Structure formats: C-alpha cells, structure tokens
C-alpha cells in the first residue's frame, strides 16, 4: 500500500499486516462513532419525556395547577413514565443481546424451541391490543413436522422477544380493522421461517435496511403518536443474528409489509 504514510520504508512482507491493522482501526473508529451517536440518541430520547414529567410535577407541587386539571396532568406524567420504562427495558434487552454476541454472557442457546407455541403465546398476549383496534390476528403453519410443529434450536425467550416486536409493529403500524397474518413453517430447503404480514402503511423500499438501526423511525410523528421508540427492530435484528437467522422485509399485496425471519440452520 504505497499510499500508506510509512509505505516507503516498510519491508514488503509487513504490508499485509499493516493493511490489516489499518482496517481494524477503521472498524474501531466506526464503532466509537456509532457508540457516540447511540449515547446522544439515548440522552435525547429520555430528555424529552423527562422534561414533560418534571414540568407537570412542578406545576402540581407548587400548587398552581387548577384542581380540575390535576388528574389530567397526572395522566401525562404516568404516560411519559411508562414510555421511559419501556425504552429502558428495550435498552437493557439490547445490551443483553450485545453481551451475548460478544459472548460475555452465557445464554442457553441449545433449547428446542417450538415456533408455533411461541407465536401462539405472543398472539394471546397481544390479542387485546389488536381487538381494541379491530385488527384480526391469524396464525398458520406451513409444512410442519408430524405433530404440526416447527422447531428450531436457540433461546426461547429471545425468540419470543423477537416475535413480539414484529407482531407489535404489525399491529401498531396497521390500519384500524386491518389484518395480521403470522405464518410459521419450513421452506423448500427445509429451513424454518416465521413470516409476519400486515395490512398497514408499508415501508418504502429505500428504508428497508435503515429501519433496523437503533432509534430509526420512518416518520417521527407517526412513531410518537403510536408510542414507538425505534428500538424494536434493532432487537429483532440482533435476536435473529444470535440464531444465525436473517430478517428481510417485502411488500404485502395489496398493501402493508411482510417481515420474514429465516433460520439458516
Ligand atoms: P418503533 O419503536 O418506533 O416501532 P422499530 O424499531 O420497531 O421502532 O421500528 C422502526 C420504524 O420502522 C418504525 O418507527 C416504523 O416507522 C417502521 N416500521 C416498523 N414496523 C413496521 C410495519 N410493520 N409497518 C410499517 N412500518 C413499520
């Protein structure tokens, strides 16, 4: 590499090593930049609700709120506190997944996990949220084994977390009265998959990679009113990676998106 500052005096056999070190340094730089952006995002995302909470609390505490408003203010405080709590929970989940990837923590990845059972559990837990908006959630099994099940090896809790995030989004970004179709199965190569299809607003093609980044929202205002924090799909991606699975997004016909998690082993 003659562009290298030491290029001129470096013995030829050291060049590959130097190039490797160079690449390593670039990767580390990128990680540091990513970490810095992440910390900035976290602070920003927590600061907004905290400002609301302390504002209303101060008005009540100083006794300058009209009595008839106090209940409503307490409601705002509660809502923002809930939002912060779910964000901190998601951050903890992400850091747990980071640790697992770096193998800093032992996570039992050898469980036999029934995708049908996990999908059914998540459906039950999200049923009332779906019902409130008139959304129907269906579950189908495609090419299951003898007992009609599809099993993969991994961690049940993490797979459940992944599916819950996908199904929550399928409800959150759906239209009232829409549909969510979950399909668990094996493809022609025998690989297990989970597909979550919705009838919502869909995701523009040029955003289909970005949505997996931490704190990314397609539309800031849309996420705000639906209570999202931009961490759900980052969790999905890391959870999938940990299982050697890939996640892809495609268009649902006539409208909406399809998220597919494909287990590669
Ligand atoms: P959030 O907590 O904001 O939902 P996610 O990481 O789960 O964060 O999703 C990132 C963004 O991707 C969301 O803000 C939303 O704009 C978009 N998105 C995710 N799932 C869907 C979906 N099923 N349909 C349409 N848009 C979606």
From TrEMBL:
It catalyses: ATP + protein L-histidine = ADP + protein N-phospho-L-histidine. Its main location: membrane. Its EC number is 2.7.13.3. GO terms for cellular component: plasma membrane. It is an enzyme of class 2 (transferase). GO terms for biological process: cellular response to phosphate starvation. Keywords: Kinase, Membrane, Phosphoprotein, Transferase, Transmembrane, Transmembrane helix, Two-component regulatory system. GO terms for molecular function: phosphoprotein phosphatase activity; phosphorelay sensor kinase activity. It is found in: Cell membrane. Residues 41-265 form the Histidine kinase domain. The keyword Phosphoprotein applies. This is Sensor-like histidine kinase SenX3. The chain holds residues 220 to 484 of 484 of the full protein.
């Amino acid at each position: 590499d003659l562009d290298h500052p030491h290029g001129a005096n470096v013995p030829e056999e050291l060049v590959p090593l130097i190039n490797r070190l160079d690449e390593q340094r670039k990767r580390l730089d990128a990680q540091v930049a990513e970490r810095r952006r992440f910390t900035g995002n976290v602070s920003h995302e927590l600061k907004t609700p905290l400002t609301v909470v302390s504002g209303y609390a101060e008005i009540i505490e100083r006794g300058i709120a009209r009595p008839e408003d106090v209940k409503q203010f307490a409601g705002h405080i509660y809502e923002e506190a809930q939002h912060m709590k779910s964000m901190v929970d998601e951050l903890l989940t992400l850091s747990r997944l980071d640790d697992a990837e770096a193998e800093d923590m032992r996570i039992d990845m050898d469980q036999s996990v029934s995708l049908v059972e996990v999908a059914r559990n998540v459906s039950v837990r999200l049923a009332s949220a779906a019902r409130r908006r008139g959304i129907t959630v269906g579950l189908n099994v495609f090419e299951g084994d003898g007992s009609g099940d599809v099993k993969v090896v991994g961690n049940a809790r993490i797979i459940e977390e992944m599916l819950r995030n996908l199904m929550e989004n399928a409800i959150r970004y759906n239209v009232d009265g829409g549909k969510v179709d979950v399909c668990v199965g094996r493809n022609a190569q025998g690989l297990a998959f989970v597909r979550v299809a919705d009838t919502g607003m869909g995701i523009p093609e040029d955003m289909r990679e970005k949505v997996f980044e931490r704190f990314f929202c397609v539309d800031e205002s849309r996420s705000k009113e639906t209570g999202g924090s931009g961490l759900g799909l980052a969790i999905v991606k890391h959870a999938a990676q940990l299982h050697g699975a890939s996640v892809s997004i495609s268009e649902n016909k006539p409208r909406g998106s399809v998220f597919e998690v494909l287990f590669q082993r």
